[in-house]
Amino acid sequence: DSKSLAVYGFSTPPQGVIKKKETGTVITLTCKVTQAEEVTIMWYKDAQTNALSDNVTPETFANSISGSTITIDTNDISNSGNYTCGFSLDSQTFSSKPAEVIIADVGISTGPSDIAVKKDSEAEFTCSFTTENPQNVEWYKVGDSENTEVGTTDAAVATVANYQTKSILTLKSVSQSDAGEYFCKPIYKFDEVTLSSESERATLYVRSLSVTLDPYKAIELGQTSGSTTLTCEYEGDGGISVVTWTYKNGDIPSDGFTKVDGSLSEGKWESTLTIQHETLTKSSGGDIKCTFSGDEKYGQPESDLESETSLVVIGVTGGQTGNVYASGNTYTANCTFKGSDVVASLVWKINGDSIENSNSRYELMMGDYVSEERTDTLLIKERTNSDPEMIVVCEYSFNHGI
After folding, report:
1. Ranges of residues in the chain whose predicted pLDDT is under 70
2. At the N or C end, where does the chain have fewer CB atoms within 10 A?
3. Is 336 exposed, middle or buried (0-12, 13-18, 19+ CB in 10 A)?
4. Burial class (CB in 10 A: 0-12, 13-18, 19+), 159
């Protein structure tokens, strides 16, 4: 008798795969068998005795090849394991070599958050990942055409500190050029396969304020026309909800004070406060502050976005003219200062020469500062007909170099 020798084999056994955990993607393993008659292929995981039934698709290929595929959801790391395919024929069981499937959780548990910081300060982004100890964590700044890695060159500009489950990017002394979007990228290696994930983008807002005035602005009393405009300028993108001016820690007066807000243009936002001179009195001096209130989304405290100037309202009145007095008369010169600032010093001058101290000829009498006024007196004693004409001048200097 003659017998036929049938040879069975796996023309395409399943191959091992390493993939990262990801929603909406699958791993497909294929098993192809060469045999003389059709067989049913079964799939097993981790040497289980019960065949898998979910996501298994039988297929028939040409040239007497039977096959099957199985799809594995990569969003479930419990699907990792050793997969084999096999079939039974003539009371014999045939199995392929195990194919190792590794689904690695290399995702981001908490990505960096949007932040707003002042110019020249530090900015810090934190990125946390689901699997400990990546081989490396890279940080990038998003560019128009390509992204730029940061924190790898000059430690005076930026540093990256990697820990077991997080990475921190610190930008030093930021400027407007640092503003933009950033993301982290943890990198893992499994055998010869490199896997990585990118976090969501986080935006860095760099903000600064400047006032276009000196720290103190002096306005002379008694002007019937004219005005002074204070300008407060914000620099930085986004995050502004309101601009507020305060006067002496209260609201801006409705009489003589006009606020005008601009809009954000090319990263700048300007607000002005115009003060009409004719409305000012000796009590009008005080601190004026502008505050740019940040959007709560960025957690920017108002105190970091404010600037202040002092309005000083001052005036000096007095002086008198007269003829030569008879011998023995005393000439009296008065000067009255009015205003909110405090006098730092007073100098009397006669024909350009300073009178520093009282003496037998001159007596300096300093008044008290009461209700924003102070009157000072110079006595010139024993005037004679032979004395030349005297031009008497009082010169006040005030705090803050005004």
Report:
1. 1-8, 35-37, 58-65, 209-215, 236-241, 294-305, 318-328, 341-342, 400-402
2. N
3. middle
4. middle
Neighbour count for residue 44 (Cβ, 10 Å): 19
Closest residue by Cα to residue 94 from 215, 13, 207:
13
DSSP, collapsed to helix, strand or coil, labels residue 79 as helix
The beta strand positions in 236-342, using DSSP E, are: 240-247, 257-261, 268-276, 286-294, 306-318, 329-339
Helix spans in 39-161 (H): none
Residue 153, token pair as written in the block:
């060159």
| Closest C-alpha to 126, from 110, 105, 140, 106 | 110
Distance CA 66, CA 267 (A): 66
Structure tokens of 362?
Answer: 């001159």
The Cα 151–Cα 153 span in angstroms is 6
Report yes or no on whether pTM surpasses 0.70.
no
- Give yes or no for a contact between 377 and 331, defined as CB atoms under 8 angstroms apart: no
